[in-house]
Each structure stands twice: as structure tokens, then as C-alpha cells.
Specification:
2 strands, two-stranded antiparallel sheet, single chain
Length: 109
């Protein structure tokens, strides 16, 4: 019962915050310097998500022959060379899938 209460409370808080700012009920303007700094939020959050996946495994740094590491480096290089997002994602997924398929030897017969 308390779990449902917390979920409803979190949902209502989230909805209220978003409603006030998206519906322009509160007329609030950020300082231009704050707006400039907030542009770095998305890259920082995304980096915090992908960096541990690529570089850390089971509490230790990955070796250079790890599928996550190799496909991550190839995807980063593809992102530098290719300006469009979808081909970079496809290259990364195909690279990771092939590396996992050809390096995994845990097939049970």
C-alpha cells in the first residue's frame, strides 16, 4: 500500500513540475549563462551512461579485446566520421553483435 502511495506521489510531483513549465503557467526566464551551461547536460548524462559500460566490467577495467570496448571505439570513430546518427547506431550494433557472436564460446550442445 505504501509503495502505491509513493508511486502516485512521484508521478504527481513529476507531472506538476512539467505542467507548470510546459504550459507556461510560471513565467520564468533563465539567465543566458545558465542556458549556455545547460546545453552540456545531455552529453554529460549520456557519457555517464556509456562510459562505465565500455570501460568497466565486473569492477575492473576492460581489456582491449573486450567486445564492449572494441565496438565502443569503432562507434566513436564512426560518430566522428559520419554526421548522421542512424548509420552510427547501426554500425555500432552490427559491430557489437558480430564481436559477441564470434568471440562467445559458451555454446551448449
Amino acid at each position: 500500500m505504501i509503495f502505491i502511495f509513493y508511486v502516485v506521489l512521484m508521478a504527481s510531483i513529476t507531472f506538476t513540475c512539467r505542467y507548470f513549465f510546459f504550459a507556461n503557467v510560471v513565467h520564468y526566464a533563465l539567465h543566458p549563462e545558465i542556458k549556455r551551461l545547460l546545453k552540456f547536460t545531455a552529453p554529460a548524462v549520456l557519457t555517464a551512461m556509456w562510459a562505465p559500460i565500455i570501460f568497466v566490467s565486473e569492477g575492473h577495467l576492460n581489456s582491449v579485446d573486450d567486445a564492449y570496448f572494441i565496438s565502443g571505439i569503432i562507434t566513436i570513430l564512426a560518430a566522428i566520421l559520419i554526421p548522421r546518427t542512424l548509420p552510427v547506431i547501426v554500425i555500432g550494433l552490427i559491430c557489437f553483435g558480430l564481436l559477441r557472436f564470434f568471440t562467445e564460446t559458451t555454446l551448449v550442445l
